[in-house]
Design brief:
The protein is an alpha+beta fold. Helix content is 35%, strand content 18%. One of its GO terms (molecular function) is endonuclease activity. InterPro entries: Endonuclease_7, Endonuclease_7_sf, His-Me_finger_sf. This is Endonuclease VII domain-containing protein.
Length: 228
């Protein structure tokens, strides 16, 4: 015996699948008889998907992406058309399940393509995103420094130095000088203390005779041991 209700009050036959279902299984439609549509919800949703796919193809020339069945803990990457574990997808707060929609290799490839298309390369993107300048401004600033590091004068420096409080670009430095300022936290007192420290501990040569030098240092002598 069928579990479906008999055709009558409170039920309707779907025009697509022909099944007789309660009115609650049909979407609300004030223009239709009884305030419900002519197609049951599954058939209506299927019709909506086909209609959207047709409009998308006519308007933009694109086809709707078909859902690919995947096992639990996996996701389908539409770029490489592969099913991979969730760990193969980058983390994303905006993505479903906290993961992005493309696997890591495809995600990285898309990022490189976007940077190349919008900025002409990753270098230009990095300079503008982090320092607010482009390669043209970088080259001009380096030229004004004589194409050398603004501190040690080493040739061909490649690192932008900026004020961490204001974000203003200060100059172009070599790797060592740029890292050194960072280690000293841009603190002038620390840098001055380092200079004084080097002055007091660096070995120095004292001329005592033409061509003869005495190596001296101002480092304090060790205090006498308790046993002496």
């Amino acid at each position: 015996m069928s579990d479906l209700p008999e055709r009558g009050v409170g039920v309707r036959m779907c025009r697509d699948c022909g099944a007789i279902k309660p009115l609650t299984e049909f979407h609300v439609s004030p223009k239709r008889k009884g305030g419900r549509g002519s197609y049951c919800k599954p058939c209506f949703n299927e019709r909506s998907k086909k209609s959207y796919a047709k409009r998308l193809l006519e308007r933009e020339g694109r086809q709707v992406r078909e859902n690919v069945p995947v096992p639990d803990g996996h996701r389908h990457c539409p770029d490489c058309d592969s099913v991979k574990p969730l760990e193969a997808f980058p983390r994303s707060k905006a993505g479903r399940g906290g993961r992005g929609g493309y696997c890591k290799p495809c995600h990285n490839a898309r990022g490189r393509e976007s940077k190349q298309r919008l900025y002409g390369g990753t270098r230009e993107y990095h300079l503008r995103a982090r320092y607010g300048i482009g390669q043209v401004e970088f080259d001009d600033l380096l030229w004004r420094q004589g194409n050398v590091c603004a501190i040690c004068r080493a040739p061909d420096p490649q690192h932008v130095d900026h004020d961490h409080r204001t974000g203003a670009v200060r100059g172009i430095l070599c790797f060592n000088c740029n890292g050194g300022l960072g280690q000293f936290r841009d603190n002038q007192h620390y840098l001055a203390g380092a200079i004084e420290y080097l002055k007091g501990t660096t070995w120095q040569r004292t001329l005592i005779h033409p061509g003869v030098y005495r190596i001296t240092t101002s480092m304090r002598e060790r205090p006498p041991s308790r046993s002496s």
